[in-house]
């Protein structure tokens, strides 16, 4: 049975972007350090990335993240889901208004009837593999708050951003149970079950 996983990189001070994120600066000012583990990581980081990518049957993201990955400098044949592994699982984008044009049209499906519907659709597509909610922060937090997530994977990057998009600001209180920790030179990879 498919497991729904919220998977996101976060700074030590709780941000998933630096200040002023947007197209051309997807991780905000100074936010590049959040993904060092995925782009320039060591053997442990590569193993985490490879295992996660291989286990993914479908991906969910919000519209703001979609605008970044489908924009210039976003995903390509060489860089995509799983960083340079460039996997191409089905990607569902939660939005009220699908864009008029999509650069990578064959990779994305737009879901206009909410996050819960996107999770249901992704489970149907995942073929008993993981459904990964990869971001942005509002989408990940919303899925956790709505009780749609079975597992939370945080890639804790050793950076202090001092501002940006907070992951858990205003989150619904919830108990998590730590089930796995892997430490590399670029991140501490934490896995929690949602109780």
Provide structural commentary.
With 195 residues, the chain is α/β, with parallel strands linked by helices. The chain has one domain (4-17, 26-128, 139-184): Dihydrofolate Reductase, subunit A (3-Layer(aba) Sandwich). The protein is 23% helix and 29% strand. It has five helices and ten strands; from the N terminus they run ββααβαββαβαββββ. The strands form two sheets. An eight-stranded mixed sheet has the order 5-4-3-6-1-7-10-9, sandwiched between helices. It is globular and about 40 Å long. The two termini are 18 Å apart.
Radius of gyration: 15 Å
The CATH topology annotation reads as Dihydrofolate Reductase, subunit A
Mean pLDDT: 95
Structural class: alpha/beta
Tell me about the largest β-sheet. Answer: 8 strands, mixed
Tally the helices: what do you get? 5
CATH class: Alpha Beta
Write the layout of secondary structure elements.
Layout: E1 4-11, E2 15-17, H1 36-39, H2 43-55, E3 56-62, H3 63-69, E4 91-94, E5 108-111, H4 115-126, E6 130-135, H5 137-145, E7 151-157, E8 165-166, E9 176-183, E10 188-194
Parallel strand pairs: 1-6, 1-7, 3-4, 3-6, 4-5
Antiparallel strand pairs: 2-8, 7-10, 9-10
């Amino acid at each position: 049975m498919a497991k729904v996983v919220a998977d996101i990189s976060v700074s030590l001070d709780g941000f998933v972007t630096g200040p002023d994120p947007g197209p051309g600066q997807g991780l905000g000012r100074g936010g590049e350090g959040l993904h060092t583990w995925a782009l320039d990581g060591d053997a442990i980081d590569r193993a985490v990335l490879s295992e996660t990518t291989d286990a993914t049957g479908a991906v969910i993201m919000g519209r703001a993240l979609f605008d970044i990955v489908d924009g210039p400098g976003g995903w390509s044949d060489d860089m995509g889901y799983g960083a340079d592994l460039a996997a191409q699982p089905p990607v569902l984008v939660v939005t009220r208004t699908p864009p008029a044009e999509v650069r990578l049209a064959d990779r994305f499906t737009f879901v206009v009837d909410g996050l819960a519907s996107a999770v249901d659709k992704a489970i149907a597509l995942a073929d008993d593999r993981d459904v990964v909610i990869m971001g942005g922060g509002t989408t990940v937090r919303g899925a956790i708050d709505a009780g749609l997530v079975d597992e939370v994977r945080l890639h804790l990057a050793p950076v202090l951003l001092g501002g940006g998009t907070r992951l858990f600001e205003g989150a619904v209180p919830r108990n998590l149970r730590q089930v796995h920790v892997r430490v590399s030179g670029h991140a501490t990879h934490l896995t929690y079950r949602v109780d």
